[in-house]
């Protein structure tokens, strides 16, 4: 009887020990998860209610325009990170889930020559489109000199053309061959059209073309810079940024700058139209610079970057607004810069560029967050 009791008691102790060990193991796992969550939450500012589990991808330089693959697993982006021996922006891609750039330089898809911008995945996720100046020269094109009036200007390089490349960096096709600026290309979720900006008409307008570069169609025609266009989730509409100079002085300045290959992006609002350019409507009337728009997965809201609430010109945050211009909501709270938001095709995540966590430098890095509706 005593022996049986001892065996029972020993079994009880072993069971309790196993339970305690399991409990301690679970507690360690829980602590680890909480610690990781706390680290990710440290990248988030108060009142950023739509964002959770923010994760930093790049660590140095200017990293921007990160756009998702159709299958939600990869990102293509541009960077000028000096640690990667870059003189100016080149195109890279990375896995979204394991894309921590502290592990090394990601795969470069551009040639390393000239300057590049605005890469986007093509249907099938085995190729990308991007714009490059490399046919106009192997070196980085000159950056505009700072004006005496302090006006911030963007260069519109006339050597930009749009190319298709595979994920090994091999250029497969040149899509545009017109003289002048051709860039800012994105692809419809319907997988049938590309929208891009060109100055081939003498002004900066939006055009669409088939995936092979054929059937080029101009869809905007008002004076001003039309750019940064994206299709709605169903491919039926397009959202874009635009300047609309009104006074004689504004019109004169816009035209003179354009002749120099420059635009002043300090006064822009958001517009939407059908994919063929019809039913054009202005969405924002906020003043200052409203840009980098992208459709919410619902197809009736738009997330974008704006400095309209900032006291200084470089204070940009992300906002969301209904397509009809109502319901403005602030999404991010960085004191310096948040821009280039893009929802993953499944609507679960948001990638964006930000100055957060840069230890007081000017570095702009890429971040991924879970989207909380």
UniProtKB/TrEMBL annotation:
One Pfam match, given by its short name, reads PD40
Give the UniProt family note: Belongs to the TolB family.
Q: What PANTHER family does UniProt report for this protein, alphabetically? A: PROTEIN TOLB, PROTEIN TOLB HOMOLOG
Protein name (Swiss-Prot/TrEMBL): Uncharacterized protein
| Species this chain originates from | Splendidivirga corallicola
């Amino acid at each position: 009887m005593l022996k049986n009791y001892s065996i029972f008691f020993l079994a009880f102790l072993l069971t309790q020990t196993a339970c305690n060990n399991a409990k301690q193991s679970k507690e360690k796992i829980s602590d680890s998860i909480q610690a990781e969550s706390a680290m990710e939450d440290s990248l988030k500012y108060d009142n950023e209610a739509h964002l959770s589990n923010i994760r930093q991808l790049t660590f140095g330089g200017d990293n921007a325009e990160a756009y998702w693959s159709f299958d939600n697993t990869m990102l293509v982006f541009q960077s000028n990170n000096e640690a990667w021996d870059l003189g100016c922006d080149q195109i890279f891609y990375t896995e979204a889930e394991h894309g921590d750039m502290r592990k090394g330089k990601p795969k470069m898809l551009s040639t390393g020559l000239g300057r590049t911008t605005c890469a986007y995945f093509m249907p099938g996720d085995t190729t990308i489109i991007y714009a490059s100046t490399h046919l106009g020269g192997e070196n980085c094109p000159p950056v505009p000199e700072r004006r005496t009036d302090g006006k911030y200007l963007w260069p519109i390089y006339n050597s930009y053309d749009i190319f298709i490349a595979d994920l090994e960096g091999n250029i497969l096709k040149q899509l545009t061959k017109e003289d002048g600026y051709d860039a800012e290309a994105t692809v419809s979720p319907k997988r049938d059209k590309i929208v891009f900006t060109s100055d081939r008409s003498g002004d900066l307008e939006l055009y669409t073309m088939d995936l092979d570069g054929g059937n080029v169609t101009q869809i905007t025609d008002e004076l001003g810079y039309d750019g940064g266009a994206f299709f709605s989730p169903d491919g039926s509409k397009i959202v874009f940024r635009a300047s609309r100079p009104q006074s004689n002085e504004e019109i004169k300045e816009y035209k003179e700058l354009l002749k120099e290959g420059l635009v002043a992006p300090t006064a822009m609002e958001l517009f939407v139209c059908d994919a063929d350019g019809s039913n054009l409507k202005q969405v924002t009337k906020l003043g200052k610079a409203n840009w980098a728009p992208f459709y919410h997965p619902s197809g009736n809201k738009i997330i974008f970057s704006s400095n309209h609430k900032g006291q200084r010109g470089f204070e940009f945050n992300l906002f969301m607004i209904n397509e009809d211009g109502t319901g403005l909501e602030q999404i991010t709270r960085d004191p310096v810069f948040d821009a280039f938001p893009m929802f993953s095709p499944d609507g679960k995540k948001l990638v964006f560029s930000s100055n957060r966590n840069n230890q007081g430098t000017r570095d702009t890095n890429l971040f991924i967050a879970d989207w909380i509706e």
